[in-house]
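Sequence only, no structure available. Ideas?
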Amino acid sequence: GQLERTPVRGLPAPLLARMSGPLISVIMVFRDVERFLDEAIRSVIGQDWPHWELVLVDDGSADGGTAIARRYAESHPQRIRYLDHRGHAGLGTSASRNAGVAAARGEYIAFLDGDDVYLPARLSRHAEVLARHPGVAMVQSCLEYWWSWAAMPDGEGDHFERPPMGDLRGLVDPPSLLLLLLETANATAAGICSFTIRRDLCLALGGCDESFPGLFEDQVLTAKFYLEHPVYVMPDVLARYRRHADSLVGRAGDAGLNAARGKYLEWLERHMAQHGAYDPRVARAVRRALVEFRHPNLWALRQAPGDALRWLRAVGYAMLPDVIARPVRTAWRRHKQRRTDRLLERARRQVNGPP
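Reply:
I predicted one. Tokens follow.
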């Protein structure tokens, strides 16, 4: 069953006296992100919503991040707490998020990883929607995929996440967002720092699945909400998702991400069967997505023309002088973006159609 609690248990009396809105617990899981952690913490402290606490969950850091987090907890004891696992173990992102949620005092839960940042209105905008719509389980906004904090890779620039429902916004009934995610092969996936959830529902749904220690653990959590509860979609960009080679996604590479997606799809199929959250449209979309993993030879045959084209394009770029290759590469990216937009629009029409 759900845990009995008061939204702000244990907070000091002077702080409680100043509060006139629901407390938001920001759960920040971090591991070996010393060079980014200070900026992430300061982005929470700088929020224009005053009713927050920050729970710093150390997933076994071996760098100076532990000292940074402890220092903030010591200097802001009423607002910031530091947690780690027994023996300073690294148990994975899901276990760490669950530890943060269990320790949280807030009515709402927001997440921020130690290498990302919130923009100043991130918490206030989400709190406003949750207060106005008591039936909404989760608020989801958009991200800036952020390269230009450092030297950018060739041809890469900052870009905004598309609003998950295109021009549509506001209340989205289940399971539309999950169906859209499947139809677009995860192109509309929400980053962990872009949503805020109600803590009681998070506990009722079992929180994060600890069989996913890293990749796709956030999508497992959002899938539970998407299947059963209304979500409010905001097109506003309210956080920055830092792109760097040392991130969990960067280290995994394409092969690691693809393997994790296969595991996620298998989990989703089992979850729907076991929890009675069955929707025929979602089930069909999952089966189609699993073809890649259950029939790899057939999938490879279907992908062969595209793979050959990508190889030829890479060879062509290598042979052309840079002054020619760069504009050609830019033109190709624009063409690819237009094609992606068309695919997304088609998927949105399918999602908005009859069951």
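The beta strands are 24-30, 52-58, 80-84, 108-111, 117-118, 138-146, 159-160, 170-172, 195-198, 231-242.
Hope that gets you unstuck.
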